[in-house]
Amino acid sequence: MYEILKKEVMSETVKLMKIKAPLVAKKAKAGQFIILRIDEKGERIPLTIADYDRKKGTVTVIFMEVGKTTKQLGTLNVGDFLLNFVGPLGQPSDIKKYGTVVMIGGGVGIAPLYPVVRELKQEGNYVISILGARNEKLLMLEKEIEEFSDEFYITTDDGSKGHKGFVSDVLQKLIDEKKKIDMVMAIGPVIMMKVVANVTRPHKIKTLVSLNPIMVDGTGMCGGCRVSVGGETKFACVDGPEFDGHLVDYDNLMLRNRRFICEEEEACKLAGV
Amino acid sequence: MAVKKTKHPMPEQKPKDRIKNFNEVPYGYDEKTAIEEAKRCLQCKNSPCVEGCPVEIDIPDFIKQIAEGNFDKAVEILKTKTNLPAVCGRVCPYENQCEGECTLLKIGEPVAIGRLERFLADYERKREVKIPKIAKPTGKKVAVVGSGPAGLTCAGDLAKMGHAVTVFEALHDPGGVLMYGIPEFRLPKEIVKAEVNYIEKLGVEINYDVVVGKTITVDELMDEYDAVFIGTGAGLPRWLRIPGENLDGVYSANEFLTRVNMMRAYDFPNFDTPVKIGKVVATFGAGNVAMDCARTSLRLGAEKSYILYRRSEKEMPARNEEIHHAKEEGVIFKLLTAPVKFFGDEKGLLKAVECLKMKLGEPDESGRRRPVPIEGSNFKIKIDTALVAIGQSPNPLIPRTVKGLKIGKWGNIETDEDGRTNIPGIFAGGDIATGAATVILAMGAGKRAARAIDKYLKSKKK
Question: The whole model's pTM is what?
Answer without folding.
Answer: 0.93
